[in-house]
Write a sequence for this structure.
DNA sequence: TAGATGACTCACA
DNA sequence: ATGTGAGCCATCT
């Protein structure tokens, strides 16, 4: 069947992210089924700035770098939220070795 | 319908 | 570390 990109699934995963942990676009894409959805994931988050409801601030790229085009608040706000979960942000980046979660549940 | 754009990732120099 | 090229997807113009 055409397993197309489902935003609901993406949002579901976002809300499932354990506290004090971050996830990369590729990781989300992989969980959704296709690792090539990374770009689509970023696009979906940008077109759907549900940051008020979804922890999109926990989503970073494979290098652990935070989004430069944060839809709301800005990089400063995102860093603020991450630190609020005991996540250390350095130079706008997080240590995926420490906070990057491969899989949860 | 086709082309360009992007909050991506990976490999190589 | 920085830059370029190639790859796949969804959305916009």
């Amino acid at each position: 069947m055409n397993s197309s990109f489902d935003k609901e699934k993406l949002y579901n995963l976002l809300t499932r992210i354990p506290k004090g942990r971050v996830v990369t676009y590729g990781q989300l894409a992989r969980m959704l089924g296709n690792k090539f959805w990374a770009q689509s994931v970023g696009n979906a988050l940008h077109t759907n700035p549900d940051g008020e409801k979804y922890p999109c601030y926990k989503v970073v790229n494979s290098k652990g770098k935070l989004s430069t085009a944060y839809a709301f608040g800005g990089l400063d706000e995102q860093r603020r939220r991450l630190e609020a979960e005991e996540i250390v942000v350095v130079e706008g980046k997080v240590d995926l070795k420490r906070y990057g979660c491969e899989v949860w549940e």
Summary: Chain A has a mean pLDDT of 90. The first strand of chain A starts at residue 23 and ends at 24. Strands of chain A lie at 23-24, 59-60, 89-90, 93-94. Residues 4-5, 29, 34-41, 43-44, 47 of chain A lie near DNA strand C (CB under 10 Å from a C1').
